[in-house]
Amino acid sequence: GGMMGSQRFEDLGKLGPSQQVTAIRYCKDSYFVTLASGETLPFWEFNLRFKTDAGPHGPAPGKPVVVGAGMRGDRGAIVFSQPDEMSKFIRTRCE
After folding, report:
1. Residue pair 51/80 in contact by the 8 Å Cβ criterion
2. Binning pLDDT at 50, 70 and 90, where does residue 95 land?
3. What is the pTM of this model?
4. Residue 28: left if φ>0, alpha if ψ -120 to 50, beta else—which one?
5. What are the residue ranges of helices labelled H in the chain?
6. Phi, psi of 85 (to 5 degrees)
7. For residue 18, is pLDDT > 50?
8. Which residue has better confidence, 30 or 70?
9. Alpha-carbon distance 64 to 20, whole Å?
10. Contacts of 29 by beta carbon, 8 Å cutoff, 6+ apart
11. Measured between alpha carbons, how far is 94 from 73 in angstroms, rounded to an integer?
């Protein structure tokens, strides 16, 4: 079990291409999250959180997902299966 009465979301391993993350690019003060669907979502750096869920309802290893956060649709969270995956996905590059 988790600490502090952890909140349970949907089964993150079953989310489709519109939520599966394939790349994360950081430039200046923004993150650009590329999805398996081909879409790229921009987030101001303070509006994107990085989380992990190693439980049975978390994302598959190496297959992080983006979930919405906030009421305006301008915030999100990238959920990884393990913390060491973060550095494999995030690249600093301005285009």
Report:
1. yes
2. confident
3. 0.86
4. left
5. 86-89
6. -70, -25
7. yes
8. 30
9. 6
10. 44, 45
11. 24
